[in-house]
Amino acid sequence: MTDFITVADVDTQLGPDWAGTGDAVLAVAMANAWLTAKIQRAVPDPVPTEIKMAGAQVAKVAAAGGLYKDTQKEVQSKTVSAQSGTSVSKTYVAGSADLSQGENFALALIEPWTKRAGVFMLQRI
Description:
Layout: H1 7-14, H2 24-38, H3 49-63, E1 78-83, E2 86-90, H4 101-109, H5 111-114
Antiparallel strand pairs: 1-2
Organism: Pseudomonas typographi
Protein name: DUF4054 domain-containing protein
């Protein structure tokens, strides 16, 4: 796991009370794990402001207990019939999950680093 942000970085971005009653150190570790899983390209040193801002948003979500949530089995299909000819149907994509506002904002901030580098064509001489 790469350390993109620290507790001090998040304090600078969001203020000292950003974690509320959550564990700030654990939240930052979760945010770094989340960023490591999402970022597919090399990140310059020092870490860009956009990545630090994204990490701060994700750490805030993690401190509130909303980042790595408990998961349940995904519903593939569900149909309920009230009476003949009337029904309600619900289908979810396997692995789908709701993303918080902070996670969506963070994904937008790190988008340049989430795409793999272009393809290089090699030609034998």
